Amino acid sequence: MASPSIPDTYTSDPLGSDFEQRSLPQPPDYEGAVRAVLVRYRVQPATTRAVLYVHGFNDYFFQREMAEQYAAHGFRFYALDLRKYGRALLPHQRPNNVRNLSEYFEDVDAALAVMRAEGAQTQVLSGHSTGGLIVALYANARTDSGLAALVLNSPFLDLNQPPLKLLAVPWLTRLGAVWPNLPVPSGLPDTYGLSLHRAYRGQWDYDLGWKPNRVFSVNAGWLRAIRKGHQQVRRGLQIVMPVLVLHSDRTAWGRTWSDDFRRSDIVLNVAHIRELAPRLGPNVTVTPVAGGLHDLFLSVPEVRAMAYQTVFEWLEQVLPGGPAGSPAQPTTR
């Protein structure tokens, strides 16, 4: 089914005057009406290069600094709130409810189409955690997308659960085909959220209604979709464009607070990322970032600086047409 026509009007965004958003309506699904929401940073360099950022699970786009960094290095910046997340969540929908990760491909298609219409000829796709898994599967499936590069920030390539809990996963995955709405435990404590939000132990301000510390509930249909994606990665993808995979240098775990949580990944096992990232395609660069959180770009300032430096140096090497950081005069749309 063809996507509905996309309104070409941007409206104000909760992030403030430097950001604006537009709705991307999609065909209805098993819950009814569906949309994604594209966010645009209004300070745009005079360039045909652009990046689209896709958030992770229990998440949405709120990272102003990321937009500023990409613009400062010669990229137009866009971010996508996927269907049933953040700005795109509709009253009749369950947050993050999905039955196949390919459902998100239409959202990415629509966002990239808007960017092309606005002059983005060299497109970079970036994803964090579950968003990293989604965009990797997207790049593998959309071989004619014309994407120039893929940047993955701690991609969710496997489950990080204790062995006893993993024993139940195949059973729950099979149930997801028959009873997709069956509730299943996420297994994620609230410690990660506590490490991020400035109201607790972090330094960031974001909407706790869209990114709660105690994560949104999940169901067997979601688990089945995730595991099918993991199986594709484990079998091996053939992503043709260059891929950069960043991850923390260490994993920590615990349901009670530890200061170790400030400088490690407490969501995913970084050993899984190291093992599986080379299976994404023939041109994959895997780089650990010392002291990084699960979302590397929410780490302490010196770690974020190193992560951004790694991204932009790599993009300078792999993208056609000269350095990514070439001087460009910013304009405000």
TrEMBL record:
Residues 1-27 are annotated as: Disordered. It comes from the Bacteria. Keywords: Hydrolase. One of its GO terms (molecular function) is hydrolase activity. Residues 1-14 have a biased composition (Polar residues). PANTHER family: PHOSPHOLIPASE-RELATED. This is Alpha/beta hydrolase. It comes from Hymenobacter sediminicola. The lineage of its organism: Bacteria, Pseudomonadati, Bacteroidota, Cytophagia, Cytophagales.
